[in-house]
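> @MW can you paste both from yesterday?
MW: sure, first one:
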Amino acid sequence: MRVSLIESAGVTGTTVRRTVDTTRLSDDEAELLRALVSASDFFNRVTLSRTPGNVVDAREYTLEVEDDTGRRHSVTISEVVLPDALEPLIDRLRQAPPERAAR
C-alpha cells in the first residue's frame, strides 16, 4: 500500500508531500497504516474542500491511497471540514519525512 499526503498551507501557498509505502515499513507499522486507512473509511470518502469564505488561511489536505490490490482513491479536504476519522491517518502521515521537490 502507498499512501500520500499533500498538505497545502493556505495563504503562503507552501505545499509539502509525504508518501509512505508499506513495503518499506516493519510489519507492525504497515499493519497500523492499513488499519488507519480502513478505520477512516477512506475509499468511501469524497472531496470536501469547500472552505468558508471567512477562513483565509486554512490548510488543505490531499490524500492518495493505492492499496495492495491496485485500487486507487484520492480526496482533497479542507482542515475546516476535516472528519475526525481522518485525523489519525493524517497525523501518522505527517510523521513521514517530506519529499524533495524535483529540480
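MW: second:
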Amino acid sequence: MVKVRTISSDLSGFDGIAVVIEKTEKLFIELLINNAGKEASGPFLGINIADMVSSISLNCTVPLMLSHHCTSSLLFRLLCI
C-alpha cells in the first residue's frame, strides 16, 4: 500500500523549508517529488539580480536541502532491512 502526504509550504524562504522538514521528521520517505520552481526570464541584464538569486535558491538549494533531509530516512530504512 502506498501512502501519500502532501505538504503545502512556501519554499522561497527557510521558514517554509523548516515546515516541510518538521512535518516529515518522523516519516520514512521513499519518494520525494520536488514540485516547486520559478524562472526569472528575459534579457540577462534586464533581470533583477535578486530575482535570479531567488530562482537559483528555489530551483537548486531547496531541492538539495529536502533531498538531504529525506535521504537520511531512506538510508536508515535500507540499512535496517
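> thanks! The mean pLDDT is 86.
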